């Protein structure tokens, strides 16, 4: 059978299962998925939109998450007990999420509290993290944030306690602090391999925001020299990047925001606009196809291998066993605390 014939056969089977399950099935797709996967989904979004959808859809029995593991876990935490969450490829992870493990986070937080005292610091965790870490935050009056609300989460925290401990993304942490006008000298980078993160007690006491040294291998690829070159080549161009990019990159861009924000920015731009984008390449290519009247150019081509792991074959395999194959399950005691941290995020306005 030719490649096209076998893809068509898979598609037919997927359509048939979707039709049969109707509203019992909810296929959530992240914006970094391929066009084909996005077109098969019930709803596409950034991490925040997808978590909101998982929390609010009460009709679906089977939620299939086309994204990476931490996203499916968050959907499982927020879904009701009669709903199941599956991911087509269980090994689709996030290298950044793996940069903060629960033991190191707990150790760092207790070292911090030993110096600055208890009830002084709010732990904030990026959505890109394990359920265990979200539960740790929930238990310690902390919350989750995504790239679309990190500044709001910081504001929420600083109205309640003096300091923020943010993990695992150094860059989102620094960019959120910048957005709130927190002076860079009050933001320190915690090196989890060093004693006290590499600081003296006095430095920690002075800091307002302590950020973990994790990063996204895809967004770290964007540089200020790429932006300067784009501006030299196309002085009229606009540059928009994801806030997982380094602070220097975000600072000299025209705008920064979540994947959903980037999509809206391009949609609202005038005809014939030239826009350079710094985020995952699948999304940039889709935007270029969707807006032929605008010139959409990647600042650099950087792809997320984990997001690419979801394909027609593993989606069909999952759909054939609703509620069974590659099920994401979270023990109740972890779910309870992790949900507190996610619920705090969902109430941010
Ligand atoms: P968004 O929340 O902007 O969709 O980002 C998720 C992500 O993993 C970006 O790398
Ligand atoms: Fe993780 Fe980066 Fe991939 Fe997003 S793009 S899922 S942060 S590795």
Strand arrangement within the widest β-sheet reads 6-5-7-9-8
- By DSSP, the count of extended strands is 13
Instruction: State the low-pLDDT regions, or none.
Output: none
Name of the CATH first level of the largest domain:
Alpha Beta
- For this entry, what is the oligomeric state of its chains? single chain
Q: What's the shape?
A: globular
- Find the CATH superfamily of the largest domain: NadA-like
CATH architecture assignment of the largest domain: 3-Layer(aba) Sandwich
Overview features:
5-stranded parallel sheet; 349 residues; 4-stranded parallel sheet; binds iron/sulfur cluster; Rossmann fold; binds 1,3-dihydroxyacetonephosphate; 15 helices; alpha/beta; globular; 15% strand; 3 domains; 13 strands
Compact summary:
The chain has 3 domains: 3-93 and 307-330, NadA-like (Rossmann fold), CATH 3.40.50; 97-215, NadA-like (Rossmann fold, 3-Layer(aba) Sandwich), CATH 3.40.50.10800; 219-298, 3-Layer(aba) Sandwich (Rossmann fold), CATH 3.40.50.10800. It has 15 helices and 13 strands. The chain has helices at residues 3-21, 35-40, 47-56, 69-78, 102-116, 131-139, 150-158, 170-179, 201-206, 224-233, 247-251, 259-268, 281-290, 312-320, 332-346, and strands at residues 25-30, 43-45, 62-66, 84-86, 121-126, 143-145, 163-167, 187-190, 209-212, 238-241, 255-256, 274-278, 295-298.
